[in-house]
Write a structure and sequence with these properties.
Elements: H1 13-23, E1 28-32, H2 38-44, E2 49-54, E3 65-68, H3 71-77, E4 84-87, H4 93-106, E5 112-116, H5 137-144, E6 148-153, E7 160-165
Parallel strand pairs: 1-2, 1-4, 2-3, 4-5
Antiparallel strand pairs: 5-7, 6-7
Helix pairs in contact: 1-2
Length: 174
Amino acid sequence: MEKDFIINKSLTYANIISSVVRSVNCKLYLELGVLQGHNIKEVSKNCKHCIGVDMDDILEFRDFEFHLKSTDEFFKVFNGKPDVIFIDADHQFEQVKKDFINSLNCLNEGSVIFLHDTDPISKELTEQRFCGNSYKIHEWIKENYSNLNIVTLPIDVAGLSIVNRENDRRILKI
């Protein structure tokens, strides 16, 4: 990646997710794909009950509930109602789609789903070891869920999408 891209280092997906977690008064946060745990550590400052799911245990932080298993295995037994979900596990479109559907099915009213790796900044980032083809989820959601709002932001080098239900807009509750 030899292009000159301007990346705002202070505007990270962890900052954005944490802001939304505060805004919706999140009681339960679910993160699919935690890696070392940097993102969930930031979010846990604003939410008391955080759950992380990953198939590898390379965590540097342990101050949240952790499930060492695939997201498919996790959703078979999970019965919680998260207020915010961050999907950043497998980067193949078909698995992102499964994770999204499972997340949508358990999402609490008035809640938000975040998807990472949805707007890679270069072709190199579409390789499996980076973002894969997870960026296809944006168009798939638009084509299959007319009742959802989705916006994809050019955050960092991989992008971040935000999804919520149209009927969950706060103004509709007034």
